[in-house]
Structures are given as structure tokens and as C-alpha cells.
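can u do me a favor
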């Protein structure tokens, strides 16, 4: 009912479980599937894997109650390009659907944060910028400060401005929020993002976040 009320979205089918979801995709070839995870017969991870293998043009956004690692990472590895929890509002769902349709990732800020934490736990990962005094660290979930602090030597030919935009992406900001933060137009932000995506060979914002964290390009409070 909620999706049917959102502008620009046409609901072509609703499935009771993963098996039916796979069959409906075969029949309707939708742009996006909004996928639950815990379902009978065929769970959401397996359904996502089968859909993405047979219909790579169909994107999958997971909408689930669960945001634990055992739910999140298998779904992303299966090919989901979006991941939201069921407390997401209609605007957030619509934005995630639009993002994956445009080739970006539709991840909630909480999921982006968990990906960063997971990367920090991996052997050889760049140390997170936690050496600042506790009083200067932003609270969990807060956007980065007015400017980002990229490393002195930037990888892959990134300019200082591109690294700054990348750091703000890693902080969970949207294009509009980045434009407001940097006092530039959204079109300028999009140009910077296209350039840095090309230089770093990332395909979407999720990969950009991972790249930023690996190279220590993250925002800090000034």
C-alpha cells in the first residue's frame, strides 16, 4: 500500500515468499525488488542470489527487521544493492529505490556505519581516525564537520576537492547535503562524484565508502 502511493513507482506484484518472488521477477522483469529476508521455502538471501544471477538488470533492495551481520553481509554478497530496516519511512524507501535504479547503492546510514566498522575489523585495514581527543569526536550518527581531512598524499590522482567529497560520502551525506556543506551546486557535486568514481574504479556509494575507509579518507570535526 505504501509503495503504491509513492510517485514514480508502479507495483507489479507481491510475493508471499522467495520462490514466488523469483517467479514474479521472471514474469514481470521489474526494475527493483523490495526483498524481505526471513521467508518460508526460499529465504531472501537465496532469492536475491537467484534473481541477480538470472536477471542482473533487476536490482534488489532488502527491507527487513534485521540489521545484524548474519543478515546484512550475506544479503549484500548475494547481490543486494540496497539495505533498509523496516523502521524506514516512505521517503527513505523511495530514495533507496531511486538510488539503485540509477546505479548507486541504497543503504541506510546505519548500514553504511556497520560496513565501516566491519572494514575496521579486517586485518590490514587502515586505522579509523580515532586519535583525536574524545571531546572533539562527533557523536555516533552525526555528519562530519564543515570540512574533511584527506591524507596529504591522495591515491589514484584524486584532487583535494574530490577527496573532500569522498569523505562526506563516507560520512553518509547525500548529494544535496554535500552541496550545502561545501557551498556548491548539486550539479558540481555530481561532477566531482563522477570524476572520483572513475579515478578510483568504484561503481557505487557503498564501494566508495569502503575505498574511503581503506585509504583513510574520512571526515573529521574541525
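np, heres the sequence
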Amino acid at each position: 500500500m505504501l509503495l503504491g502511493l509513492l510517485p514514480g513507482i508502479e507495483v507489479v506484484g507481491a510475493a508471499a515468499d522467495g520462490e514466488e518472488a523469483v517467479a514474479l521477477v521472471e514474469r514481470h522483469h521489474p526494475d527493483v525488488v523490495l526483498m524481505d529476508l526471513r521467508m518460508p521455502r526460499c529465504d531472501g538471501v537465496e532469492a536475491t542470489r537467484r534473481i541477480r544471477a538470472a536477471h542482473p538488470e533487476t536490482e534488489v533492495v532488502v527491507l527487513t527487521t534485521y540489521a545484524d551481520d548474519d543478515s546484512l553481509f550475506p544479503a549484500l554478497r548475494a547481490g543486494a544493492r540496497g539495505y533498509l530496516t523496516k523502521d524506514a519511512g516512505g521517503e527513505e524507501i523511495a530514495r533507496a529505490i531511486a538510488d539503485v535504479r540509477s546505479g548507486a547503492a541504497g543503504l541506510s546510514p546505519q548500514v553504511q556505519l556497520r560496513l565501516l566498522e566491519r572494514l575496521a575489523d579486517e586485518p590490514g585495514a587502515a586505522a579509523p581516525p580515532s586519535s583525536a581527543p574524545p571531546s572533539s569526536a562527533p557523536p555516533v550518527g552525526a555528519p562530519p564537520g564543515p570540512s574533511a581531512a584527506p591524507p596529504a598524499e591522495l591515491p589514484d590522482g584524486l584532487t583535494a576537492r574530490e577527496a573532500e567529497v569522498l569523505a562526506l560520502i563516507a560520512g553518509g551525506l547525500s548529494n544535496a547535503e554535500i552541496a550545502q556543506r561545501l557551498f556548491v551546486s548539486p550539479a558540481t557535486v555530481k561532477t566531482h562524484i563522477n570524476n572520483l568514481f572513475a579515478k578510483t574504479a568504484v561503481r557505487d556509494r557503498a564501494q566508495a565508502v569502503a575505498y574511503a575507509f581503506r585509504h583513510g579518507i574520512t571526515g573529521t570535526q574541525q
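The domain at 2-111 is CATH 3.40.50.2300 (Rossmann fold). hope that helps!!
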